[in-house]
Fold each of these.
Amino acid sequence: MNDYRPIIWKGNKLYLLDQRHLPQQETFVEVNDLPGCALAIKDMVVRGAPCIGFTAIYGMALWVKGQTDLTLEKCRKACDEMIAARPTAVNLSYEVNRCFDMMKESLSKKEPRESLYDNLVAFGDQQILESHAKNTSMAKIGFEELKKKVGDKKWNLMTHCNTGFLACGSLGTALGVISYANSKGKVEHVYADETRPYMQGTRLTAFELSKEKIPYSIVVEGAASYLLSHGKVDAIFVGADRIAANGDTANKVGTATLAIVAKHYKIPFYVVAPVSSFDTSIPDGKHIEIEMRAHSEITEFRGHRVAPEGAVTVNPSFDVTDHQFITGIICEKGLIDPAHAGELVKVVRS
Ligand code: MRU
């Protein structure tokens, strides 16, 4: 565990660790307005469902600061512009719509614009701070579950994409469980999927695991069947970008394939995500919009063309894991069994 921060608010300015250049360069970009913030989210300067949400809150504060006459219509339009930056992670609309509620209340009370700005900044700070407590709670729940399910030995764990402090602003969700288990001396080895095509596993998860000195190997996604069939993995932990009411979960593309293979080899498969990643307004995963990203992410590798000229691609950034392949969903309120219909909705309302 460490105090490394991908989002810094300082002197009324937003600084984002440019995750596009990790792990080779650790540089920050300064963001000054709503379009700049939305672009940073779209271009994945900042990424990971929770961090996208936190960044957007500060983006809304920056927008309010730049306004002379605020109206509810302008506020809604600005919020929608921010929400449009990336479609799949519900945390973005979750946090921005909470900003909109604050704007509405402030306008109805005829508060000065400066107070709304201060309140939005304070809200961003508070969400990041609270996420630490939530992530710690999820980590402890995951740890206890591992003790029960896998037993009292050192565990070999697998993860997909990046769910650590770079994605969450603190500790992490799935990687938070791994990091916590490691702090208790219970991790033998971690297998980090490389995460084609954006390489979140190779670039970011491996970076985080090395910062925390957790023993790991990077593996290609296609190695899952080999590893799982050879008993190399005791349990799998992944994050989530949106979880529907029935437990179907959108996460980085490749997650669903991994879950299906895990079920075949009877390896426990857990989704770890805060309640802000739940979208109980949709009954199942078929209602989740999947972001399609640029061809160049596949045809090029860091600016070097690897596919023939004119090659076309299909590049969905996420997929939906059917709840039947998920052993448990861990949120800050507890462990949810997705096989029990309605349990997720009950937990959200509790
Ligand atoms: O496209 P990204 O890098 O934003 O995708 C991130 C993921 O899919 C993560 O696994 C997910 O957001 C959970 S983050 C705690």
Amino acid sequence: MLVAALMTVFSAQPGLAQESSPPRIAPVLAAADLRPARDLSGPWHMSIDPYRDGMAGFHGGKPAMSSRRYADIDIAETERRDGSALFEQDLGRSPVVTLPQSWLTQSAEMRHYQGLVWYQRHFDAHPQPGKRVFLHFGAANYAAHVYLNGEHVGEHRGGFTPFAFDVTDLLRDGDNQITVGVDSQRGDKDVPPPVTDWETYGGITRAVTLITVPETYVDDAWVRLTRDGRIVASGTLDGPAAANRAVRIAVGGLGLTMTARSDAQGNWSADAPAPAGLKRWSPQSPTLYDVRVTAGDDVWHDQVGFRTVSVDGDRILLNGKSVFLRGICIHEEEFGADPTRAITPEAARALLTEAKQGLHANYVRLAHYPHSPVMTRMADKLGLLVWSEIPVYWRVAFDDADTLKQARTMLAENILRDRDRASIILWSVGNETPVSDARTHFLTTLASDARRLDGTRLISAALLSHREKRDGVDTVVIDDPLIPALDVMAVNTYNGWYGDDSLASLPSIAWASKYRKPLIFSELGAAAKAGFHDPTATHKFSEEYQAEYYRQTLKMAEKVPFLRGMSPWILKDFRSPRRQHPIYQQGWNRKGLESETGRRKQAFDVLADQYLRWTDAPPGADR
Ligand code: GCU
């Protein structure tokens, strides 16, 4: 009787029941961005729909034909033939915009629009027998409703991860019409919830492509160096001939070829000792190898770096050697006065080069959500270690089972997209989330999912801490109950900006942890408006105050014996609706070390000089 009662208690508490394995993502289409594809970027028609008439009629149910944006009809022609026909929208004659990019910058009226926008374009296709065609989205923020030739293809929630639909049976030979409704409105049960400290760039913000593959193809492939010195390859075939299929894995430039045979579910794996000639990936030597996986008619390929990352006590080891992470935080927002979250290779290179060449960084925290694959591939190429995270940010509905499901799906989509990226060493499962039993269970479930999906990387989360006097010393104490589920502790610290600490007092603040694990300062920072000066360095928002904040905070950091890295907040100023001071902010968070247009502030050089010194003599090297 008692056991039954306990089971009832557990199952009655949403999110407290023992979690199952990570959600299955299908299709994965790993390395989709390297597959030969038809790129649908370019001109699309756009129409706003603030009251979502295109989604439902005035009493609910299917939308009236007059509002049905996705209907497969030529409205202009219909009106010419029948003057009595009633339509109250027509995407075919709506304004044309260039995708991918957020709608915020399409016009002055759109700058603050949040809600539903419809996009539509036509394209020719010529389906071939024995082939499958996937419609692939790099990301759409926040919910996407996809239609092809008037048919509902599918939906996706989550603004920063890829998704795809098999449209083989819906494609016409000749002209096709794709219509996508993107709704940027988030609710309290979404991930993230409505309130964040960054702009909601609504829209189709990454590439939309048509990917044609053989009817049985390599859907997932993950090739990595394991801590015991082996090259392991594993993945999944998908299609009618996925089972019991020969698979060949070749690592170009290493003369390494492995073979496998898929099982009844299409899963395959192979491994071999790492060849003696293997050049391990590192920031100093970001060596990438061309990897090909062949199965039947399909050849999957990616550019893969081989390295290991681990923790040893309170140290982080890269390729077995202790490393100090000299980092900086970066939002997915290109340099410029009017960014639209269009991350091209040039935009990614500009941001990451400022970190690597300008700041002498070896690490970036790509906050607060999965960034474009353009960014993570650029980090692989330039040689920067990466912290990758999902936007479990601030006040998430931790006790809601659907919210947990959404976060788990987002984490799996992120890891399955990027686990071939050597640059990524950390998966983060949250940022500054208020401690509660429900929150700690929620994040522990995510940490467990991350480990099951990828046992080769480290798990972390940006946490909060608290202050107390210990033996008369002002001490920051780290004792978050989530830490046992993490490999690396990370804390956001703003002493000297938020609160009343004087800058001069910062170096005397001590740090203590209940757990012996490596610590990263996942954020620290102060704001400054570029060009605003106060020689006394006492006025917040002056460049001098920000620079002095960095000098004093870095002195404090050098004294923390288990500190193994930092990613100050943040490389450049970024749009935030929460920052509306008319003189200093005007809708921008000004904690950047440079302005939104890349004008470096005095603090930039303070950090750069410190990182240059730490390059050869990192803190704690002698400890
Ligand atoms: C928080 C948060 C950031 C935010 C920053 C700030 O730590 O993680 O997203 O922008 O502080 O206050 O500027």
